[in-house]
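FAQ: What does the model actually see?

It sees only this:
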Amino acid sequence: MSTSDVTHVEADGNETGWDAVADLPPSAKLVAKVLEYNDSLTQSQLAEETLLPPRTVRYALTRLEEVDVVGSRFSFSDARKRIYTLAIE
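And it is asked to produce this:
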């Protein structure tokens, strides 16, 4: 077995990091890749960068948050917006 065949698995049996992203829809993979190249973006900025509809970006972010690969915080300049960052090392 090569090192590329090894997946990272938590104690509860769930995959982590990019292994968890591999099982997600293409829109979630695209959002994760865009966040990998940009430190942090709002949902509207992600929609602009990915050319995906805002609703699809929202769904992708929800799926990424479910597997704990995306973190979010409120924007300091506009508390109505959240800023998303990739939580994969």
